[in-house]
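RETRY 2/3 - previous attempt timed out on the joint model. Re-submitting the same 751-residue input unchanged.
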Amino acid sequence: MQTKPTTFHFLLFIVSGLLLATLSLVWWNSSRQPQPIELIPTLTGETEYCLTCHADLPEISASHPVETFGCVSCHGGERLALNADLAHSTMRGGGNPSALSVVETSCGGSNCHSGSEADDRHHIQRVTTSVQSTYAGAISNILFTFGAQPDLTARFGIAAITDENSKTGITALQAFDPLNANHPSVQKFGEECLTCHLHAEPREGEAFARETGCAACHTTGEHNLTTAIPYTQCNACHNRGNYDLRTMTFVERTDHPTQRIDDYYQPIAQFTQCEYTLDCVDCHTRSEVMGDGDIHNDQASIEYVQCKTCHGALEELPLTKTLTDPNDIAFTLAFLNPVVDLKLGDTILITEKGEPLWNTKVLPDGTYEMIGKATKQYFTFKPVMGTACEQKPDEQESHYCHECHAVEK
Amino acid sequence: MRPSFFHHLHPPTIPTEQARWRHTLGAGGTAVFLMLILGMTGILEMFYYIPTPEEAALSVQTITYHVPFGGFIRNLHYWSAQLLLIVSAVHLLRVVFTAAYKSPRRFNYLLGLALFILAILLDFTGYILRWDVDICYPLLTGTNLLKTVPFIGDFLHRLAIGGGEACTNGLLRMYVWHIFGLTLPVIILGIWHAFRVRRDGGIAVPPPQVRTDNARISRNELVRREVLAMFIVGIALILLSIFVPAPIAAAMTEGTTLAGEAKAPWFFLWVQEMLKWGDPFIFGILLPLGILALIALIPYIFPKPADSDIGKWFPKSNRLAQITIGLVSFIVILLTLLANAN
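RETRY 2/3 succeeded.
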């Protein structure tokens, strides 16, 4: 049977119309795709299209301009893909490339924040060996308390870590596995109390929001990295509740702490005025907070700044240093967080270990000034020498100072 | 009026019976159309595809997302390739179910089968050319299977990927196999296959003396039907290509070669399922080859269909062949579904 030409022509007409319609659908589909936004970061020279969707993100920091770094050198991901699922499928650490599981390839890539101690590039080594990351002191305390180890020497950390050149004598920590513990309280500790270190996801609740890894401290808002870290960032861990050692549980606070002095998690704690006015990072140094590259036994063995560091004692002034080297680390730190205009020839305070308190300055009249790193507030203060203070020279820890100088709550 | 080139490729008239949809299902013609699309879209893709391990997956992403209509062309290529396998299988089933393989078409049956195998290998190599994290496991499994062949295993392996590690070194071989090594035989065997269709007397129908319907249609009518069929398949392809994008995954990098799915492409899932049964050579090579040999031998060792049965659906005289190919299809589909469910 032949198809009648008229029937065929009609069919062909209809089918051709449909073919044209589907072809225009192709055109329509392609025209509704977003216009790709190309970026060729100077550091990599490799085209990426992340800005097609993420053009409205704030610049992460002045030190990481997007024109230089782009997105992929830190975040990973499929740089050419315009499909969100594919583009994001290989991102390092999900949205947080500073998570310690991937930090070596992101922040540590190209020897940016990973490298030799001599070049002061060993940031990741410092962080991963620091007590903030190992939680070694808390673990050894618990193990000792419940008879699982004979002394308070740290043997375990959150993750296994070695440092053969450790100056502290502790060259390695094994990974702590609470499931291997015999005592139920140690197991409970493992379940309840390991949400504080840098590997751990924070507990739920806005007041405790933080990231993991480097960003736990350095990310204070949407897509930012900063060294101007306010005390609230520290409080995401350090003031978010208390331990109940009887039940070995963590009791999360339900209020939103607003009064720094009254709302601290340990009501019996004492503070001098500077301790609740300044930010933590105004006094506590990089090596205290971020580690110094060695494995430390516990918090007490890395924390060393005392009142005396800035104020001196009755018979000695605080240590100072006149900046004569333009490559002094103080200039770098002041450049990263430009709250002070540090110049060659300025005299600043330094700690007992020689770390610069670069936001301080010795004034001509022998008093000192300090600019808040996070608040940019201006403070002046005096040395103890020449005052009526009667503190014995060998009793200089802060708790001795608190006896007179703690504020009344 | 003298026929145009395109008309001239067709015989002046053919028996009406041969040209019925319900007789041919249009499978062979659709396969030719799909191969033309594959050739054209493939050439377009070659303008951007870079067959080096570092650049391959990125160039596929470039084609997909940045070349104007590149994603659409790639989707067309992908969907034509998948449909080609289905249409070829349907074509094979039609030929067996209508006893069309009987002499003098026995040799052309083998040519067609060879084309089907080539199409499967082309589909596999094309899949490998994505060179993203999802391809390494199937490539490794497939090429390691070759190694299990006694005596010539290493030679076959070298032939396929050129030595070294499959997922780091195999790309260039896969590329050349895809573009030349398999495509050229398809072109040659394809033309031969079509030539033999005409030489063997067109699409299988009973010989004139036992034919009931002696009506014929002209080449003009035949071309009309072909054009209509091409348009309809074209519309289906375009719609598929707009709404169902071809699979793509993250580029392989050092250490992520096996990060993707440990799953064979869909047309080899049945083999993957059989590999669970034991020895890879027996279940991954011998058994599939045995099944292939069984299908290839249908025109030669199975009871010969009666002349009057040729071109009729499910005639009694080749029941055994129907049951055999039906059973093979059923088992392959079942294994595929099983592998997909796991």
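The first strand of chain B starts at residue 13 and ends at 15. Closing ticket.
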